Amino acid sequence: MDLRRTLVFRLALSFAGLIVVFGAIWVHELREDTLAEQVAASRLVELMQAGEGLDAQDRVVQLLAQGGLRHVTVTLLQAGEAAPPAPGAAWPSLLGLAASPVTDHRIALGDRVLLIRPDPSSELQEKLGPSIQLLAMLLVFCAACLGMTWLAVHRALSPVKELEAGLLRLERGEPTAGLPRFQLREFAAIAAVMDRVAINLNRAHEGQRRLTQQLMEVQDKERRDLAAELHDEFGQSLTAISASAAYIEHHARSADPAVVVECAREIGNESRRISDHVRQMLSSLRPYGIEDSGMRETLSELVAAWRTRLPDRRIESRIDTLPPLPAAAGLALYRSLQEALTNWVRHSGADTVNVECLDQGSVIRLRVADNGRGTARQLLDQAGGGLLGLRERLTMLGGSFAIEDVPNGGIVLTAYVPVVEKEMQ
């Protein structure tokens, strides 16, 4: 049902009922007034006809005693007696009727005279009563209309309390709003939106929980991997350097010069290997060039590294010359491309990926599309710490992140990174 139609229908039904009631009252009053008018006219005719015959005065006196006349005053005077003055009522004066000529009608009844005079105050009194009654009915009608309107609106808006309670439940962190089924279409639509909001909030809370857990796992794994790297790679190299240096220290005077040279060469080789390994580890932890104008070269190096590791797959790329970026924005752009290529290799099953990184003025748009068999829904439902962390990173910068399906198969990841760093509140 529609709220507007419901309110109009209820109010129209209420008004129709009131009109029927007041119409019945008006018909009753009209009937009573008509009957009274007929009785008064009949009495006046009887009074005028009573003036014939010997007992005319007695019949006139009896009829005058019965009353029931309207709009006229009838007085029985003695012959030669002056007519009494007309009563000075206020209403005729206010309406301009006092100055109107009043014609007295006299009928001779033997030695007496029957004086018939129009009475405007009587007519005004009769009109005043129905007018007051009509005004009272109008006031009652208005009060009834207001009461019925309030009742109709109150009943129509009663689901608002349920909606408020549902919002409070969501605010307390409950999984659902727990709303009943509404008959009105507007409130049913609001309830459906609240249900979707509840679902999205639950997904967001679950994603946040998974992100926190996965970030902790990633942090522990990185620490373990770093400890293993330091132990396995650096430990062996440092041991070899230490052994060669000890040999030179103890046998420098008596050792064969060729052996000393070989030891020195071994120390140099191990030092260079440690230096290269340190550079590689630092690059994976925080790429070089993301805080200056070398962002294009840094991204190109990342693409080239994947080409070298995957010679049987094709990577097409177009990377514009990018402006200098804040450190956080540059790192977010680098991690976006890194995560997109990682998902392409691990999950898509595609043999081709297209990388575009374009300068659009206020933002940098990164678009990575593949021709694999994966879908955006599957990737979002199975989102790991990388995607969840990337979304949070871009959101904090004022950017955005989206994964969509490609019409001909595959998925496309689009990230917008603002050029100007967002001020943190």
Number of domains: 3
Structure classification: alpha+beta
Averaged pLDDT: 75
- Main beta-sheet annotation: 5 strands, mixed
The outline comes out as: rod-shaped
| Number of helical stretches of at least 4 residues | 11
Q: How many strand segments?
A: 8
Indicate the percent of residues in helices. 55-70%
Unreliable runs, pLDDT <50, ≥5 residues? Answer: none
Helix/strand order: HHEHEEHHHHHEHEEHHEE
Strand content: 5-15%
Widest beta sheet: strand line-up: 4-5-6-8-7
Rg (CA only): 52 Å
| End-to-end Cα distance | 45 Å
Q: Can you give a write-up of this model?
A:
With 425 residues, the protein is of the alpha+beta class. The chain folds into 3 domains: 3-156, no CATH class; 162-285, no CATH class; 288-425, Histidine kinase-like ATPase, C-terminal domain (Heat Shock Protein 90). Helices cover 62% and strands 13% of the residues. It has helices at residues 3-49, 56-66, 90-94, 120-156, 159-171, 185-251, 257-285, 295-309, 327-348, 376-381, 385-397, and strands spanning 72-78, 105-109, 112-118, 314-319, 352-359, 363-370, 400-405, 411-418. The strands form 2 sheets. Strands 4-5-6-8-7 form a 5-stranded mixed beta sheet. Strands 1-3-2 form a 3-stranded antiparallel beta sheet, with helices on one face. A hairpin with a 5-residue loop joins β7 and β8. α6 runs antiparallel to α7 and α6 packs across α11. The model has no long low-confidence stretch (mean pLDDT 75).
Overview in brief:
With 425 residues, the protein is of the alpha+beta class. The chain is built from eleven helices and eight strands.
